[in-house]
User: Which sequence fits this backbone?
């Protein structure tokens, strides 16, 4: 006995939930980024996760959460606002661990940005456009664009720039 598509769909909570799911949990209004975000979301970054668990004492669960938050953070580059962004501490640690895998990071940057995406130290200047620190700007964008971001990871982001973290 074979099941029809309707029989299978009956067992699902809602059929349309799969059509409306946004990559990385982004809010509506960023449809022009859909394809780029889907490609980002496919990045497993297993070697980075493994390094964080072995060398930085991250739990597997926390490393996986940081992967998502790193991808969300790096996706802010697609907004092309000219603003500098500053990651939360654990997202910065994830980024540093990723950069150590130089070939993987170069391939990632080439695939997603078309060029190397530099990780430059923050020099404590405020934004020329918004007159706020990159940490405060990043935290605000994460709240607005990714409402289901991991607040625990991002809570300290606003203060990061004063502590010498990078952007």
Assistant:
């Amino acid at each position: 006995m074979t099941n029809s598509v309707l029989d299978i769909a009956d067992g699902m909570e809602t059929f349309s939930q799969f059509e409306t799911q946004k990559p990385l949990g982004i809010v509506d209004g960023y449809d022009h980024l859909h394809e780029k975000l889907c490609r980002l979301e496919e990045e497993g970054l297993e070697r980075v996760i493994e390094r964080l668990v072995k060398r930085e004492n991250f739990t597997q669960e926390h490393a996986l959460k940081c992967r998502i938050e790193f991808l969300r953070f790096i996706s802010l580059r697609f907004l092309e606002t000219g603003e500098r962004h500053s990651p939360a501490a654990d997202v910065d640690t994830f980024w540093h661990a990723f950069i150590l895998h130089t070939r993987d990071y170069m391939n990632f940057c080439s695939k997603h940005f078309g060029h190397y995406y530099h990780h430059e130290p923050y020099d404590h200047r405020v934004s020329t456009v918004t007159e706020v620190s990159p940490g405060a700007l990043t935290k605000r964008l994460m709240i607005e664009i990714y409402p289901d971001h991991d607040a625990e990871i991002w809570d300290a982001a606003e203060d990061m720039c004063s502590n010498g973290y990078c952007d």
Summary: The chain has a mean pLDDT of 81.
